[in-house]
Design brief:
The protein is built from nine helices and seven strands. The longest helix has 37 residues, at 105-141. The protein is of the alpha+beta class and 265 residues long.
Length: 265
Amino acid sequence: MQFVKNDRIQLWIEQGGASRGIPRAGAAALIALLALAGCDQGESGASDVSQAEAPLADDAAKASYSLGYRFAENVQQQFQGDIDSDAFSRGVRDQLSGDEPMVDDDEAERVLTAMMEERQAAAATEALTNLESGLEFLEENAQRDEVVVLDSGLQYEVLEEGEGPKPAPSDVVTTHYEGRLIDGTVFDSSYERGQPASFPLNRVIPGWTEGLQLMSPGAKYRLYVPPELAYGDSAAGSIPPNSTLIFDVELLEVQSSDDEAGDTE
C-alpha cells in the first residue's frame, strides 16, 4: 500500500478502508460527524454528556449519525484492537480544523505502513493455520461411513431425503440453513433470523452450487465445504481466511429458470 504525503488520511480511508469494505461515503460522514463533535466539545470536554444525550434534530442528522456509526462498526470489525479510538478522533478533528498534526508525514507513513504489514503477516499466519486445520478435519471426516466425498473435495451427508426434481444452477432456491466453522462457531443462520433465504443457485459459493444440485425439495443435507469451494484465502465478514465451512441446508423450494422465463413472456 502506498501512502502519499499531505493526503495520507484520505488515502488510507480510500485505498485501505475501501478495499476492506468500508464505504467512502460512510468515511466522509464519520469525519464530518467527528469534526462537529470536536468543535462543540470545547477545551474542557465538559459537554461530553450533553453531546451524547442530544437528540438528532432531523433526517440529515440521523443519516449522518447512521453512516458514522456503521463506518465505526466496520473499522472495529476490520482493525479490532489496533485502533486507538481517542487518538483516531483527535487526528480527524485536527486535520479538519487545520491544526498542525501531532505526527509528521514521515512518521505517519512509517507507522501506518508498519501497522498494515503486521496485520498482513498475522493474516497470512492465520490463513495457513486455518488451511492446515481444515485439511486435517476433512481427512478425518472423510473416514465416516455416512459422509460422501466428491471429486471436487466437497463432502456431504444426508440428514433427510426429499422428493421431486433437483435444482439446476440457474434455478432459484429457497432454503433454511446454518453455517458454522469447524470449531462450532455459527457465523450465519436463517433459522435465527426466522426467515428462509432465496437466491439463484449460480450466485453463491461453489460448494453450495454443487451441493444443492444433489438435493430435492424437503431434503436436508450437511455440507462440508473446503476453502477452495468457499471464500478461499480471503476473509468474509466473521469467516476467517482459508476456513473450512459446515452448512446444514434444508431445501424448501425450487423455482425453475424456465418457469421464470415463462412468467415474463
